[in-house]
Amino acid sequence: MQLKEIDAYARLPLPVVGAEGNELVLKDGRRVLDLYGGHCVNTLGAGDPGLGRVITEQWKRLSFATNLLDHEARGCFMAAFERNLPPETDGWSVFVSNSGAEANENALKFALAFTRRRKVVFFKGAFHGRTAAAAAVSDTKLAAFPSTPFDVVKLPWNDVEMATKAIDTSVGAVILEPYQSLAGVTEPSAEFLATLRRLCDRTGAVLIFDEVQTGNGRLGTPWASQHFGVVPDAFTTAKGAAGGLPIGITVVRTKMASAVPGKLFGSTFGGGPLVLAAAAHVAHRVAEPGFLANVKATSAALCKAALQNSGGPIGSIRGAGLLLGLVVKPELKASQVRDALLEQGVLVGTSDDPQVLRLSPALTLTPAEANRLAKALDALVVKA
Ligand SMILES: Cc1ncc(COP(=O)(O)O)c(C=O)c1O
After folding, report:
1. Closest ligand 1 atom to 214 CA
2. Residue with CA at minimum distance from ligand 1 atom 3
3. Which of 96, 102, 128, 209 for mutating ligand 1's site (highest number of atoms within 8 Å of CB)?
4. Measured from the CA of 104, which atom of ligand 1 is nearest?
5. What's the pLDDT at 143?
6. Are 302 and 240 within one domain?
7. Which residue is closest in CA terms to ligand 1's atom 14?
8. How sure is the predictor about 332, in pLDDT bands with cuts at 50, 70 and 90?
9. Does any domain span residue 245?
10. Mutational pocket test of ligand 1: of 36, 131, 157, 239, the residue with most ligand atoms within 8 Å of the beta carbon
11. Do both 115 and 137 map to the same domain?
12. Ligand 1: centre distance to CA 105 (Å)
């Protein structure tokens, strides 16, 4: 074969041929418990029958339509999505695109157009995507373009004093992940979030939460703003919002959105009927009684399983709901523990922090399934 794939990913030695619920099925028939959940994408687990039905029926009824036409799936999505939103007097406005990076680009474009400013504040450890504007506010050299499309200021995470000095009336937007996932599920202090909200209120900067990972029920509340009690002016999501189909969603307070020309935004595929039918189904499931209670119960079961054996590899836990960072003991590396867990039939993720493993399983994982982590950790042989 002449065609080569660009070497973007370090692939794990897992010959996956299928997946069912929360298990990956390997070529030799072995099954691996998936505590990574396709990186927060598999909200409902693999092959959810309800989601499969919705997608199949929508495909038969109306597979695709240009955004110049309205369709039923859009109305269904708007109604279902609205149910889970945090309260806002004048309501929220939404724009649908195809990915997390695109959702963030649109939020930043909106904020800079609304404020007529050209400076964006972001934080050390941030990851917002790989396209030009999203990379400009990400703390990673690997995603960098030669120059940024606007002025950027990087501030230390959780540093109230530095934020107070830097956020003035020249700042158009402040963007952050409510939990910095890739950085190792680092938590914001309550004072930090409250200060950012107060500074944005005072200066007119638009506060943007990137909820690409934290949204759609992952923290045990529909959105991080309901978990932390701080509501941003705009937020974005992607990954799990359509349970496995590509989507990006930018949500903005209507009183701000209506001041910016809608024609600044557009997408060929974004907001097509298939993906909106899937996203409506996910939003309905998140709103179902018991769905978020399961997220919290399974989170507690995972934390208990991870810390059960005081002689085991996990020292402490960060995060909330089903976005958890397991901090391995100082003498170990997260990647060693990840590899050893894989040998025990459990898939977990790593992060940019060499000491932190990430768990981001499907939100349908049960406490009983979570208990399998304890057994795997007990049997662990960590190789240097
Ligand atoms: C917090 C966060 N924002 C944005 C993105 C970019 O999303 P996408 O890969 O869909 O562009 C990611 C992807 O990992 C992410 O974790």
Report:
1. 1
2. 128
3. 128
4. 4
5. 64
6. no
7. 129
8. very high
9. yes
10. 239
11. yes
12. 11
Exposed/middle/buried for 15, CB within 10 Å: 0-12, 13-18, 19+? Answer: exposed
pLDDT over 90 (residue 1): no
Counting ligand 1 atoms within 8 A of each CB, the residue from 39, 123, 127 with the most, and so the one to mutate, is 127
pLDDT digits (tens, 9 = 90+) for 4-49: 999 999 899 899 999 999 999 999 999 999 999 999 999 999 999 9
69-110 pLDDT, tens digit each:
999 999 999 999 999 999 999 999 999 999 999 999 999 999
- Does residue 268 register a pLDDT over 80? yes
Enclosing domain of residue 212: 50-287
Report how far residue 269's alpha carbon sits from residue 274's, in angstroms, rounded to the nearest whole number: 10
Question: Residue 245: CB within 6 Å of ligand 1?
Answer: no
As a whole-number percent, the residues of the chain with pLDDT over 70 amount to 99
Atom of ligand 1 nearest to the CA of 39: 14
Whether residues 253 and 354 fall in one domain: no
Tokens coding 355 = 């000491």
- Please work out whether the CB of residue 213 comes within 6 Å of at least one atom of ligand 1: yes
Classify residue 314: in a domain, yes or no.
yes
Residue 303 and residue 176 share a domain = no
Same-domain status, 219 and 327: no
Q: Please say which residue of 252, 268, 287 terminates a domain.
A: 287
Max CA pair span of the chain: 61
The alpha helices in 155-244, defined as continuous H runs, are 160-166, 190-203, 224-228
Q: Is the CB of 177 under 6 A from ligand 1?
A: yes
* Nearest Cα to Cα of residue 42 among 278, 346, 289: 278
pLDDT for res 235: 98
Strands of 248-253's sheet in order across: 92-97, 248-253, 234-237, 206-210, 171-176, 119-123, 151-155
At residue 320, does pLDDT exceed 90?
A: yes
The closest residue, in CA terms, to atom 4 on ligand 1 is: 128
Tell me how many domains the chain contains: 2
The SS3 of residue 327 is strand
Is the pLDDT reported for residue 140 higher than 90?
Answer: no
Same domain flag for 158 and 23: no
Q: Taking all residues of the chain, what is their mean pLDDT, rounded to a whole number?
A: 96
